[in-house]
Amino acid sequence: MDGEFLLMLTSRWLHILSATVMAGGAIFMRFALLPVLEAREAGDRSELSQAIIGRWKVFIHSGIAISLITGLYNFYVRFHEVKPMPYHALFGLKFLLALVVFFIASALVGRSKGLAPMRANPRLWLNINVGLALVIILLGSMMRYAPHRSPVEKKEAVQSPSMLVRPVATSNSESMGTSIAVTANA
Length: 186
What we know:
Elements: H1 3-38, H2 42-78, H3 84-109, H4 116-120, H5 122-144, H6 151-159, E1 164-169, E2 178-183
Antiparallel strand pairs: 1-2
Helix pairs in contact: 1-2, 1-5, 2-3, 3-5
Protein backbone atom coordinates (compact mmCIF):
# COMPACT_ATOMS: atom_id res chain seq x y z
CA MET A 1 0.00 0.00 0.00
CA ASP A 2 1.34 3.39 -0.90
CA GLY A 3 0.76 6.73 0.84
CA GLU A 4 -1.76 7.99 -1.70
CA PHE A 5 -3.93 4.91 -1.28
CA LEU A 6 -3.81 5.20 2.52
CA LEU A 7 -4.81 8.87 2.32
CA MET A 8 -7.76 8.05 0.05
CA LEU A 9 -8.83 5.16 2.27
CA THR A 10 -8.56 7.25 5.44
CA SER A 11 -10.50 10.10 3.86
CA ARG A 12 -13.31 7.80 2.72
CA TRP A 13 -13.42 6.06 6.12
CA LEU A 14 -13.55 9.38 8.03
CA HIS A 15 -16.26 10.67 5.68
CA ILE A 16 -18.47 7.62 6.20
CA LEU A 17 -17.73 7.57 9.95
CA SER A 18 -18.68 11.23 10.46
CA ALA A 19 -21.89 10.77 8.44
CA THR A 20 -22.75 7.65 10.43
CA VAL A 21 -22.23 9.38 13.77
CA MET A 22 -24.23 12.47 12.83
CA ALA A 23 -27.08 10.62 11.10
CA GLY A 24 -27.20 7.94 13.80
CA GLY A 25 -27.19 10.60 16.49
CA ALA A 26 -30.09 12.42 14.85
CA ILE A 27 -32.08 9.18 14.56
CA PHE A 28 -31.35 8.32 18.20
CA MET A 29 -32.32 11.80 19.38
CA ARG A 30 -35.54 11.83 17.38
CA PHE A 31 -36.83 8.34 18.12
CA ALA A 32 -35.30 7.42 21.51
CA LEU A 33 -34.25 10.51 23.41
CA LEU A 34 -36.95 13.02 22.45
CA PRO A 35 -39.90 10.84 23.57
CA VAL A 36 -38.19 10.29 26.95
CA LEU A 37 -37.48 14.00 27.35
CA GLU A 38 -41.05 14.94 26.43
CA ALA A 39 -42.36 12.67 29.21
CA ARG A 40 -40.33 14.52 31.88
CA GLU A 41 -41.20 17.64 33.86
CA ALA A 42 -40.25 20.91 32.15
CA GLY A 43 -37.45 21.81 34.60
CA ASP A 44 -35.89 18.36 34.57
CA ARG A 45 -36.22 18.22 30.76
CA SER A 46 -34.41 21.53 30.28
CA GLU A 47 -31.54 20.58 32.56
CA LEU A 48 -31.08 17.18 30.90
CA SER A 49 -31.39 18.67 27.40
CA GLN A 50 -28.68 21.24 28.11
CA ALA A 51 -26.33 18.57 29.46
CA ILE A 52 -26.83 16.41 26.37
CA ILE A 53 -26.48 19.32 23.96
CA GLY A 54 -23.27 20.40 25.68
CA ARG A 55 -21.68 17.07 24.84
CA TRP A 56 -23.36 16.44 21.49
CA LYS A 57 -22.35 19.75 19.89
CA VAL A 58 -18.69 18.68 19.90
CA PHE A 59 -19.67 15.72 17.70
CA ILE A 60 -21.78 17.95 15.45
CA HIS A 61 -19.12 20.59 14.91
CA SER A 62 -16.33 18.02 14.45
CA GLY A 63 -18.53 15.96 12.13
CA ILE A 64 -19.33 18.97 9.98
CA ALA A 65 -15.65 19.88 9.62
CA ILE A 66 -14.59 16.31 8.87
CA SER A 67 -17.45 15.80 6.39
CA LEU A 68 -16.65 18.98 4.47
CA ILE A 69 -12.90 18.38 4.30
CA THR A 70 -13.12 14.70 3.38
CA GLY A 71 -16.10 15.18 1.04
CA LEU A 72 -14.32 17.84 -1.00
CA TYR A 73 -11.11 15.80 -1.04
CA ASN A 74 -13.00 12.66 -2.15
CA PHE A 75 -14.67 14.66 -4.93
CA TYR A 76 -11.29 16.02 -6.04
CA VAL A 77 -9.78 12.53 -6.13
CA ARG A 78 -12.62 11.06 -8.18
CA PHE A 79 -13.14 14.08 -10.45
CA HIS A 80 -11.46 12.57 -13.53
CA GLU A 81 -12.30 8.93 -12.78
CA VAL A 82 -16.06 9.14 -13.16
CA LYS A 83 -18.27 10.36 -15.95
CA PRO A 84 -19.50 13.88 -15.14
CA MET A 85 -23.12 12.86 -15.49
CA PRO A 86 -24.58 11.71 -13.18
CA TYR A 87 -21.69 11.95 -10.65
CA HIS A 88 -21.28 15.73 -10.60
CA ALA A 89 -25.02 16.33 -10.43
CA LEU A 90 -25.36 13.86 -7.55
CA PHE A 91 -22.42 15.49 -5.77
CA GLY A 92 -23.97 18.95 -6.16
CA LEU A 93 -27.31 17.82 -4.77
CA LYS A 94 -25.65 15.90 -1.92
CA PHE A 95 -23.48 18.90 -1.04
CA LEU A 96 -26.42 21.32 -0.96
CA LEU A 97 -28.54 18.96 1.16
CA ALA A 98 -25.58 18.41 3.50
CA LEU A 99 -25.31 22.18 4.03
CA VAL A 100 -28.97 22.23 5.07
CA VAL A 101 -28.41 19.30 7.46
CA PHE A 102 -25.35 21.03 8.92
CA PHE A 103 -27.33 24.22 9.45
CA ILE A 104 -30.22 22.46 11.18
CA ALA A 105 -27.89 20.38 13.36
CA SER A 106 -25.92 23.48 14.32
CA ALA A 107 -29.10 25.40 15.07
CA LEU A 108 -30.38 22.63 17.34
CA VAL A 109 -27.19 22.57 19.43
CA GLY A 110 -26.45 26.28 19.22
CA ARG A 111 -27.21 29.21 21.48
CA SER A 112 -28.33 31.86 18.98
CA LYS A 113 -31.49 33.67 20.09
CA GLY A 114 -32.51 34.02 16.45
CA LEU A 115 -32.68 30.23 16.11
CA ALA A 116 -34.48 29.63 19.40
CA PRO A 117 -37.77 28.88 17.55
CA MET A 118 -36.04 25.93 15.87
CA ARG A 119 -34.82 24.61 19.23
CA ALA A 120 -38.35 25.03 20.61
CA ASN A 121 -39.65 22.54 18.02
CA PRO A 122 -37.00 19.78 17.92
CA ARG A 123 -39.44 17.10 16.71
CA LEU A 124 -40.03 18.93 13.41
CA TRP A 125 -36.38 19.79 12.80
CA LEU A 126 -35.09 16.35 13.75
CA ASN A 127 -37.67 14.79 11.40
CA ILE A 128 -36.42 17.02 8.58
CA ASN A 129 -32.78 16.30 9.39
CA VAL A 130 -33.28 12.54 9.58
CA GLY A 131 -35.14 12.57 6.25
CA LEU A 132 -32.45 14.67 4.57
CA ALA A 133 -29.68 12.52 6.06
CA LEU A 134 -31.30 9.39 4.60
CA VAL A 135 -31.51 11.07 1.17
CA ILE A 136 -27.83 12.10 1.44
CA ILE A 137 -26.84 8.52 2.27
CA LEU A 138 -28.79 7.30 -0.78
CA LEU A 139 -27.08 9.89 -3.00
CA GLY A 140 -23.67 8.82 -1.66
CA SER A 141 -24.48 5.22 -2.48
CA MET A 142 -25.51 6.22 -5.99
CA MET A 143 -22.27 8.19 -6.41
CA ARG A 144 -20.23 5.17 -5.37
CA TYR A 145 -21.61 3.21 -8.32
CA ALA A 146 -21.55 6.02 -10.89
CA PRO A 147 -20.18 5.02 -14.30
CA HIS A 148 -16.40 5.38 -14.65
CA ARG A 149 -14.62 6.87 -17.63
CA SER A 150 -12.73 4.57 -19.97
CA PRO A 151 -8.92 4.88 -19.85
CA VAL A 152 -9.02 7.01 -23.03
CA GLU A 153 -11.76 9.28 -21.64
CA LYS A 154 -9.87 9.65 -18.37
CA LYS A 155 -6.65 10.62 -20.18
CA GLU A 156 -8.52 13.20 -22.27
CA ALA A 157 -10.26 14.60 -19.19
CA VAL A 158 -6.99 14.98 -17.30
CA GLN A 159 -5.33 16.66 -20.28
CA SER A 160 -8.16 19.09 -20.99
CA PRO A 161 -10.88 19.24 -18.32
CA SER A 162 -14.03 21.01 -19.36
CA MET A 163 -14.34 24.74 -18.74
CA LEU A 164 -10.67 25.34 -17.89
CA VAL A 165 -8.52 28.08 -19.35
CA ARG A 166 -5.96 26.62 -21.74
CA PRO A 167 -3.92 27.87 -24.71
CA VAL A 168 -5.45 27.48 -28.15
CA ALA A 169 -3.96 28.25 -31.54
CA THR A 170 -5.19 31.33 -33.37
CA SER A 171 -4.98 32.31 -37.00
CA ASN A 172 -4.24 35.97 -36.23
CA SER A 173 -0.62 36.72 -37.23
CA GLU A 174 -0.39 39.66 -34.81
CA SER A 175 -1.02 37.49 -31.72
CA MET A 176 2.21 35.43 -32.07
CA GLY A 177 0.33 32.17 -32.56
CA THR A 178 -1.43 31.50 -29.25
CA SER A 179 -4.04 33.05 -27.01
CA ILE A 180 -5.96 32.06 -23.89
CA ALA A 181 -9.55 30.91 -24.32
CA VAL A 182 -12.19 29.24 -22.24
CA THR A 183 -13.14 25.97 -23.86
CA ALA A 184 -15.78 23.43 -23.06
CA ASN A 185 -15.56 19.77 -23.91
CA ALA A 186 -18.82 18.06 -24.73
